[in-house]
Design goal:
459 residues; alpha/beta; 3-stranded antiparallel β-sheet
Length: 459
């Protein structure tokens, strides 16, 4: 890449961001808002920590004489900048959101923070040499990155933080909406003052059911510093809007064609609650050279729960699994057989991943039904129609001993278990069940896996 290209590349990038963050509205408030950011935020400890982390990251880059996306999560200074940035955005997420929503929002924040850090390190890398290819002395490099640090980690950070607040609030409100569309509708409302953008004012009063496709793209915030929101109203008191007309207005409000012929505002066509994201998925940082490699590396450092159907049957049954499941585990094939049997009966069965610890935030998402129970901290193998089950197998030839151990291990994980078929009588198994119930051990269901077939043994 020629040395002069990065300079032009990032000039265009900053022009775009500054236009989005600071001059989109055009009102007197927004014109003065940029100048107020420094005074308002240098006193905030969290913002100062980001600035300090930025300085250390740039010093590390200069010492290394290079930067590549694969370094982003390996170098402590780079990772610290990501983490401090994420802390600022995570503080915008309301305490009231569910553990599930919080997990997804924080996951998005981590990715966004990684992309933002990558963008500034990539730009700083271009300062290592001058236009003639000579190594830049540190004092000149430092002069440039000090300005860069303030731009990214003070000015841009504030605009992004404000967006994060409104976006996270939108996700929290969406999560708590009523499902009764005969009684409740959603209504688009602005802040109602002279700072409201004209195009957003056109959306004011749009009233539609929660399920209307309008809300999948045009739920506020619809731009940086947008203060609009969607509120629940009683259907009997409000007339339903025309959906097609509303969508046209939504398209107009999120359309602004740049000099490159692309729509700068299309990225805001998402719903924080439905998509479970704080920031626009196609934000400007995601378009920086090397961003695809950052996304790949980010997946290694932040567990991504992305369940998807791996088998589906005509009766509606399906097996769901995420990338965190270890398909090379010793018992995976037998767990899959259990899942397949139930799926063929029309059930929805999820093969559950094993986490390193129950302290992982994802635990409260995957195993939330165990919170407050004696099984909290356990990680059963399967979820059938929302109910957790544990599978236990055996390897020994001593079947009676194996049967006892399978019951003991399985019932520590769940009161609903599936065990492999053993060469023992039903009488003997019933005695073991009776003994354990006498000891106060809960046994709600017991299934037997026999090859590819399965049957319910108890009750």
């Amino acid at each position: 890449m020629p040395h002069e290209l990065p300079e032009r590349y990032f000039q265009a990038f900053h022009h775009s961001l500054q236009f989005q963050y600071f001059t989109e509205c055009g009102c007197s408030y927004c014109q003065s808002h940029k100048a107020e950011l420094s005074a308002n935020n240098t006193n905030k400890k969290s913002f100062k920590k980001v600035l300090n982390a930025g300085e250390k990251a740039f010093k590390r880059l200069f010492a290394n004489k290079n930067y590549k996306p694969e370094d982003l999560f390996k170098m402590p200074e780079y990772k610290a900048l990501i983490d401090e940035t994420a802390k600022v955005f995570n503080s915008a997420i309301a305490y009231e959101v569910s553990d599930t929503m919080r997990y997804y929002l924080e996951q998005d924040v981590f990715v966004f923070s990684g992309l933002k850090t990558h963008a500034q390190l990539t730009e700083a890398r271009s300062y290592l040499k001058d236009k003639e290819g000579n190594v830049t002395p540190y004092y000149k490099f430092e002069q440039k990155v000090l300005k860069l640090n303030k731009t990214y980690n003070q000015n841009y950070l504030q605009a992004e933080y404000e967006f994060a607040i409104h976006s996270a609030q939108s996700a929290e409100r969406w999560e708590n909406l009523q499902d009764n569309e005969e009684r409740y509708l959603l209504q688009y409302r602005t802040a109602g003052d002279n700072r409201v953008r004209a195009e957003h004012q056109e959306l004011a009063g749009i009233t539609l059911p929660k399920s209307d496709s309008f809300w999948s793209c045009y739920t506020p915030p619809n731009g940086w510093r947008c203060r609009c929101l969607a509120v629940e109203v009683l259907a009997r008191e409000h007339k339903k809007s025309n959906s097609k007309e509303a969508i046209k207005k939504g398209e107009a409000a999120t359309t602004q064609i740049g000099s490159n012929g692309k729509n700068k505002l299309a990225m805001f066509r998402f719903n924080p609650g439905i998509d479970k994201k704080v920031f626009p998925p196609k934000n400007s940082y995601s378009k920086i050279v090397g961003a695809d490699r950052v996304l790949k590396e980010a997946g290694k450092y932040h567990k991504t729960y992305n369940p998807k159907a791996i088998r589906e049957y005509k009766n509606g049954g399906k097996i769901i699994q995420c990338d965190l499941v270890d398909t090379q585990a010793n018992d995976y094939e037998r767990v899959l057989k259990v899942a397949d049997f139930w799926a063929k009966q029309g059930d929805t069965v999820e093969i559950m991943p094993k986490l390193d610890t129950y302290k992982d935030r994802l635990y409260n998402v995957l195993y939330k039904d165990l919170i407050g129970t004696k099984y909290f901290g356990k990680m059963p193998d399967l979820k059938r129609n929302g109910i957790l089950y544990e599978h236990e197998g055996f390897r020994t030839k001593k079947h009676k001993n194996a049967l006892s151990k399978m019951l003991s291990r399985g019932l520590k994980q769940s009161d609903k278990i599936v065990i492999d078929k053993v060469d023992c009588t039903d009488n003997y198994l019933n005695k073991l069940i009776k003994f354990r119930k006498h000891e106060g051990i809960d046994i709600t269901e017991l299934w037997i896996l026999d090859g590819s077939n399965m049957y319910k043994f108890y009750p």
